[in-house]
Amino acid sequence: MRILLLVAAIVGVFLIVRTLLRSSGKGAPAVPPERVKQQGPVVRCAHCGVHVPHLEAYRAGERVYCSREHALEDARSRDDD
Ligand SMILES: [Zn+2]
């Protein structure tokens, strides 16, 4: 009975160590995709065409801009028409 318990303990430790080694070895490269997911979708500036994360974009009506300056410039240039 003691031998069975000993074998079960050794197998348990072996499985735990193997799981830890696998998770630490392949965990690192998964960082960049998570960053993209956190920033959300990307939108295109209506003035210069630069792509910016949805959360950092500026809005003027239905149009989206990369910066406050481009929102103002675009509004000014559209007033001239
Ligand atoms: Zn822009």
Average pLDDT figure: 83
- Distance from first to last alpha carbon: 91 Å
- Strand % is 5-15%
Helix count, per DSSP?
A: 3
Helix and strand run: HHEEEEH
Q: Tell me the structural class.
A: alpha+beta
Major sheet: 2 strands, antiparallel
Helix content: 55-70%
Contiguous runs where pLDDT drops below 50 for at least 5 residues: none
Please provide the count of β strands: 4
Number of domains: 2
Radius of gyration: 27 Å
Strand arrangement within the widest β-sheet reads 1-2
Shape call: rod-shaped
Listed once per kind, the bound small molecules are: zinc ion
Describe the structure.
InterPro entries: PP0621-like. This is Preprotein translocase subunit YajC. It comes from Thioalkalivibrio nitratireducens (strain DSM 14787 / UNIQEM 213 / ALEN2). The chain is α+β, with helices and mostly antiparallel strands and 81 residues long. It has two domains: 1-39; 40-81, no CATH class. The chain is built from three helices and four strands; from the N terminus they run ααββββα. The chain has a two-stranded antiparallel ribbon with strand order 1-2. A two-stranded antiparallel ribbon has the order 3-4. The mean pLDDT is 83. Bound molecules: zinc ion. Zinc ion is lined by residues 45, 47-48, 50, 65-67, 70.
